[in-house]
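Run log, item B.
One chain of 125 residues. Sequence copied directly from the ordering sheet:
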Amino acid sequence: MLMPKRIKYRRSQRGTIRGCATRGNLVEFGDYGLQAMEPGWISARQIEGKVWIRIFPHKPISGKPLETRMGKGKGDTDYWAAVVKPGTVLYEVGGLPEDMARTVLNRMSHKMPIRCRLARRRAKV
């Protein structure tokens, strides 16, 4: 499972995801990509795959056990997640015809917790 080797702080606050992605929003490596259309967290288990992965889970998501009273500090880290803004390219594939790439990325988008769309590489000027 993907997770950072070292971190500065063990736990982090939830934070807010505002705005659209200004970096990582173009297809760079493959011919087609899966682009996020809404903000959200994508867990490390959902990021696994055999394609170009453009996101990495840096954020620890903590949770307290069920039926625990309030107080006694913050809970332990449950999982790691990647913070995704709208417009971020999540995955890229290359070397496939368009119809096959469309079916592959469509199946991947159904497993994501956010809405995604197909993005293709633009010609460099």
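Observations after the first pass:
- The two ends are 38 Å apart (CA to CA).
- The mean pLDDT is 91.
Flagged for discussion on Thursday.
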